[in-house]
Amino acid sequence: MSVYKRGKIWWYRFKWNNEEVRESSKQTNKRVAEQMEAAHKTGLAKGEVGIREKAKVPTLKEFGAGFMRAIETQCAEKPGTIEFYRSRYSVLAASELGERKLDAIDEGVIEKYRQTRAGFQSRRKLALSPASVNRELATLRRALRLAYEWKVLNRVPRIKLLRGERNREYILPHDMEAAYFSALPAPLCDVAVLLVDTGLRLGEALSLDWRQVRLEPANGARFGYVTVLSGKAKSKKSRNVPLSGRAVEMLRRHEPKAEGLVFRRDDGEPLSKSLLGQQQTRVRALLKLPGDFVLHSLRHTFGTRLGEAGADAFTIMKLMGHSTVIVSQRYVHPSPEAVELAYERLTALNMQKVRTIRGTILEADSGAIQ
User: Fold this and answer.
1) Alpha carbons 358 and 194: distance in angstroms, whole number
2) Which own/partner pairs from 182-188 qualify as long-range (CB within 8 Å, at least 24 positions apart)?
3) Measuring CA to CA, how many Å separate 368 from each of 87, 244, 362, 365?
4) Which pLDDT value is given to residue 237?
5) What pLDDT is stored for residue 279 in this prediction?
6) Is 209 helix (H, G, I), strand (E, B) or coil?
7) Which residue, among 167, 194, 197, has the nearest Cα to 290 in the 3D structure?
8) Is the pTM of this model over 0.85?
9) What value, to the nearest 5°, has the Cα angle with vertex 50 and ends 63 and 5?
10) How far apart are CA 17 and CA 315, in angstroms?
């Protein structure tokens, strides 16, 4: 018997007349799956059932339309993500992979593509960065996994990413902050204040509406706040993020309104990310700051400062809108002093509970004697 498990469900697989038969038993019981496999073999031997004709497997290029429809549905609120997958998939479809059927794209084919793209040079004789190649490979992996979910494929090949990809984890030092903000032109100067003091994603900041802004504390709170309606997390739950004093001051200069975008052009249109990115590039060059210092670094700076201030991973997760606490844990680096303080509090709590229990026992004994 050749049964195997996928998740909680048992599958069976065997050869019949040099053709592979692979079926899901739709059962969680291994013994039942083995019985179903035996029954299938018996049926084939008696001619009662035939080997099902395999559905036509599309090429990677042909699969693109369905893949993009799925991405557009799943990422309807993220036009940037949709455009990302569209551009990367077009590169894959135009390559030698495009004419291959999905079930013919195995580890060997992927490795050849990986090596080819790693050595590719543009017209300007510039090599593709590992990050660029890895984004293409990540798109291919998502497409193949989707094909597996739709039962177009029986397996997803393992895809290895290129090494050497640089993570943009620049943190704005406190002693550089004044010079950085002094050099920023409008409108980036105000957007940057919000990013570094709230940890919002750039897209969240640019889509912020005045209806989401509360400059005055409410219900006994100590800070005003902004409500982020949805983020990158799959749960899409809103979150409230407190506002610092300078963030409140900056927002007041924008003359709060009943509704409408907080950050917009003079003609009322939304600010573009490209404009802010260009301003960031010029300031970075002026101050001779590292090339890794992109606008997303301000969000990373916020998370790092939260961790340095002693915030736990779950608090950071709530404030930054991470999908899992695993992402938030990267910002938490407990110092020896913090560890000892936590242990001191634990000891004090244990002693308090012991005293309370002893007091309860003494009171009970005293009442029994009386």
Assistant:
1) 52
2) 183/283, 183/286, 183/287, 184/279, 184/283, 185/279, 185/283, 187/263, 187/271, 187/275, 187/276, 188/276, 188/279, 188/280, 188/283
3) 80, 58, 10, 5
4) 72
5) 96
6) strand
7) 167
8) no
9) 65
10) 60
Residue whose tokens read 């798109």: 139
* Residue 215 confidence (pLDDT): 95
- Top-level class of domain 174-331: mainly alpha
Sheet holding 239-242, edge to edge: 213-214, 225-228, 239-242
**Segments of the chain scoring below 70 in pLDDT:** 1, 46-55, 122-124, 165-168, 230-236, 335, 361-370
For 333-344, b/e burial (b = at least 16 CB within 10 A) is: eeeeeeeeeeee
β-strands 9-16, 3-6 pairing:
antiparallel
Q: How many CB atoms lie within 10 A of CB 34?
A: 17
| Torsion 237-243-247-250 (CA) sign | positive
Domain boundaries, the chain: 3-46, 60-149, 174-331
**List of E strands, 110-180:** none
Q: How far apart are CA 91 and CA 97, in angstroms?
A: 10
Q: How many residues appear in the chain?
A: 370
Q: How is residue 270 annotated by DSSP?
A: B
Which are the contacts of 112, defined by CB distance < 8 A and separation ≥ 6? Answer: none
Long-range contacts of 331-339 (CB under 8 A, 24+ apart): 331/303, 331/304, 331/306, 331/307, 332/307, 333/307, 333/308, 338/310
Instruction: With CA atoms as reference, report the closest residue to 298 among 207, 197, 228, 204.
Output: 197
Q: Is the peptide bond before 187 cis (omega within 30 degrees of 0)?
A: yes
Q: How far, in whole angstroms, is CA 18 from its chain's centroid?
A: 44
The string over 217-250, giving b where at least 16 C-beta atoms fall within 10 Å of a residue's C-beta and e elsewhere, is eeeeeebbbbebeebeeeeeeebbbbbeeebbeb
- Nearest to residue 102, comparing CAs of 152, 159, 136, 139? 152
Task: Work out the number of other CB atoms within 10 angstroms of the CB of residue 204.
Answer: 23
Helix (H) / strand (E) containing 354: helix 336-369
Q: Choose among 328, 263, 283: nearest CA to 302.
A: 328
Q: Could you tell me where the beta strands, DSSP code E, fall in the chain? A: 3-6, 9-16, 19-27, 213-214, 225-228, 239-242
